[in-house]
Amino acid sequence: MPEGHTIHRLALDYRRFSGGAVRVTSPQGKFSDAAALIDGAPLTRTEAHGKHLFLGFRDSDWVHIHLGLFGKVAFGGAPAPPATDTVRLRLANPTVYVDLRGPTTCALITDDEKNAVHARLGPDPLRDDADPDAAYRRISRSRTTIAALLMDQKVIAGVGNVYRAEVLFRHGIDPYRAGRDITPAEWDAVWTDLVELMHEGVRNNRIDTVRPEHTPEAMGRPPRVDDHGGEVYVYRRATLPCHLCGTGIRTADLAARNLFWCPTCQKR
Ligand SMILES: [Zn+2]
C-alpha cells in the first residue's frame, strides 16, 4: 500500500490537468455515469489527506480516490493510446493523459461527503492544516502500542509501514510501548520528524530516512538494494546488522504488517 507521500505526490502530478477542459472517461465502465457528469469540466484543485486523493472539478464536485492495495496510476503524453478495459478513470487533455486502475475507491462526491472523509481521518503531517495535538490526545489515552497507533489512520493519516518503523528507530522508541507512555516531548519530536521526512518523500518520490552520517558514502557501506527504494535503518532489514550498534534487526507481525526494529537502540 502506498504511503501518504505517494498520494500527495499524485495530487501535485494531477495538476498537469489544471486550466482547461478535461476529457473524463471510464473505459472499464464502473465510473461511466459519474465521468459523464464531469466530462469537459475544468480541474480546479487537487488535494490529499493521508491515503485519500481528491480531484476537484468545477466548484464542488470531487472525485475521491483511494488506491488500496492494488490501485495504480500511470501518466503518459498525448495522444493517449486506446484504453484497456481495466482503466477505471482516464483524464485526458491535448498534452497529457492519466489512467487509474484497480482503486478501492473512485467516486464522485460532494463537499459534504468530502468533509466527512476528512472528519474520520487523523492529522496528516503533509497537510498545512494538520493539528498534531489531535493525534496526541488519542495516543496519550491509549494502551495500544505506539507502532499500531502510528498505522491507525484515525489517529494519524498517511504514515505507513516504512515511516512508522523508521521514525520509531530515529527516536529510540520501543515499538511495543503503549501510546499513553509516550511523553509530549517525544510526540513533538516524532511529529516534527515525520513532517520533514514525509515532505522529503514527496520531493524525491522515495523514502530515505538515514541521517547524513549514516549514508552508504559516509559509512563506506554498500547501498541498500530493495524494490522499496531509499536508505533506511530497519525497514525490511531483518537479521541484518543495525547501522548504529550492529545488533541484528528484528521483525514481528504488528497491526497486520511486518514491524522492524533494533532491540538495542529502541529500548525507551
Ligand atoms: Zn541498533
Q: Could you explain the architecture of this structure?
A:
- By secondary structure, the protein is of the alpha+beta class.
- The protein has two domains: 4-119, N-terminal domain of MutM-like DNA repair proteins (Alpha-Beta Barrel); 132-261, Helicase, Ruva Protein, domain 3, CATH 1.10.8.
- It has helices spanning 4-13, 32-38, 111-119, 132-139, 146-149, 161-170, 184-204, 216-219; strands at 23-25, 43-49, 52-57, 61-66, 72-77, 87-92, 96-101, 105-109, 250-254, 257-261.
- A hairpin with a 2-residue loop joins strand 9 (250-254) and strand 10.
- Helix 1 (4-13) packs across helix 7.
- Bound molecules: zinc ion (ZN).
- Zinc ion (ZN) binds next to loops.
- Zinc ion binds next to loops.
Order of helices and strands: HEHEEEEEEEHHHHHHEE
Structural class: alpha+beta
Regions with little confidence, pLDDT below 50 for 5+ residues: none
Number of strands: 10
CATH architecture tag of the largest domain = Orthogonal Bundle
CATH top level of the largest domain is Mainly Alpha
Measured by DSSP, the beta-strand proportion falls in 15-25%
The number of domains is: 2
Question: How does the overall form come out from the CA principal axes?
Answer: globular
Helix share of residues? 25-40%
Major beta sheet summary:
4 strands, antiparallel
Placed side by side, the strands forming the largest sheet appear as 1-6-7-5
- Our measurement of the CA-to-CA distance between the termini, rounded to an integer number of angstroms, reads 29 Å
- What is the overall pLDDT average? 96
Tally of separate helices: 8
- The rounded Rg comes to 20 Å
Distinct small molecules bound, one entry per kind: zinc ion
According to CATH, the fold-level topology of the largest domain is Helicase, Ruva Protein, domain 3
